[in-house]
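Lab meeting, item 3. Inverse folding demo.
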């Protein structure tokens, strides 16, 4: 986890509006000596930050790294609690597993686990998620909402909206959501979301939301079998995208929507979700554990359950399924 001193230092640079911060000011703020200030500055330099030091003025950050370390994400992040505690790893089997352990050990709400690479990332139904190094945003968020356990799937839909809004802010792209947890660009998957519970009886202990965003992969970075169905922001934008900018935008939009959800319920999230949904009004095939249903997707219920109308006019409620979109 990031140290509290490092967090305060990066918050100071974030709020400085690119003005210089004197060594004296930083020392007083952090309660450390000038020598200790210099040590923190050198650690940032070693991490890849480009800092300018001017006599009688102080320090300012003039360029950042292209990594997604805790320090890189923290610089410029202005959330209240989402992402304020960051656990960073270079290479992990799965950010979900680390987040589950941290949540069990009492990690604060909003804690984020992020890695440069996952070698055993998973999506829904235990499907492998391809997570190559230095290309995407592979992260998990720890939440502790006081909501009924049956409402937990609503947070998957909320997360999808937050990621769409983040991508729209950082790029010129406009993703669409395919129920329940996929984001598409030009019909290809760019983001997956996995929501897992830690609960006892009817009480939620924590909810772990895993988010995988393909940011800077080239086509050849995907396994051959995924090249026809997966894409990245860089492929669609035709230029490299700053991963830390995407992550900060996700955290900022998620917090805004999460606070709205806790205060006002699911209805405003539902309206936003449906405005981004690719399947509403489309003919779909829903493959469930008990069989296959074909019909028109009508939208979602107030609980986030998909409503499907078959050819006989009967309405089916789909709680969990793989969705195939048919041609318009």
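The presenter then showed the designed sequence:
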């Amino acid at each position: 986890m990031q140290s509290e001193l490092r967090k305060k230092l990066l918050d100071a640079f974030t709020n400085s509006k690119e003005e210089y911060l004197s060594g004296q000011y930083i020392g007083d703020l952090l309660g450390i000596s000038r020598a200790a200030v210099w040590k923190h500055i050198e650690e940032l330099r070693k991490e890849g930050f480009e800092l300018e030091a001017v006599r009688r003025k102080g320090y300012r950050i003039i360029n950042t790294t292209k990594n997604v370390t805790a320090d890189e994400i923290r610089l410029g992040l202005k959330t209240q609690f989402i992402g304020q505690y960051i656990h960073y790893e270079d290479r992990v089997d799965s950010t979900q597993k680390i987040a589950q352990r941290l949540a069990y050990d009492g990690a604060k709400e909003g804690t984020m686990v992020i890695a440069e690479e996952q070698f055993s990332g998973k999506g829904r139904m235990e499907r492998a998620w391809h997570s190559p190094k230095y290309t995407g945003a592979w992260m998990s968020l720890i939440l502790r909402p006081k909501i009924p356990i049956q409402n937990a799937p609503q947070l998957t839909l909320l997360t999808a909206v937050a990621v769409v809004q983040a991508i729209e802010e950082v790029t010129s792209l406009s993703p669409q959501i395919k129920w329940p947890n996929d984001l598409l660009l030009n019909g290809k998957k760019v983001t997956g979301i996995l929501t897992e519970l830690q609960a006892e009886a009817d009480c939620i202990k924590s909810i772990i939301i895993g988010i995988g965003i393909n940011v800077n992969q080239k086509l050849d970075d995907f396994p051959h079998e995924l090249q026809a169905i997966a894409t990245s922001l860089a492929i669609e934008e035709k230029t490299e995208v700053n991963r830390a900018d995407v992550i900060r935008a996700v955290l900022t939009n998620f917090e805004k929507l999460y606070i709205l959800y806790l205060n006002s319920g699911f209805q405003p999230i539902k309206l936003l979700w449906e405005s981004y949904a690719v399947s509403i009004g489309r003919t779909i095939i829903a493959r469930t554990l008990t069989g296959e249903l074909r019909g028109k997707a009508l939208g979602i219920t107030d609980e986030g359950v998909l409503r499907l109308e078959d050819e006989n006019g009967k309405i089916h409620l789909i709680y969990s399924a793989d969705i195939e979109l048919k041609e318009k």
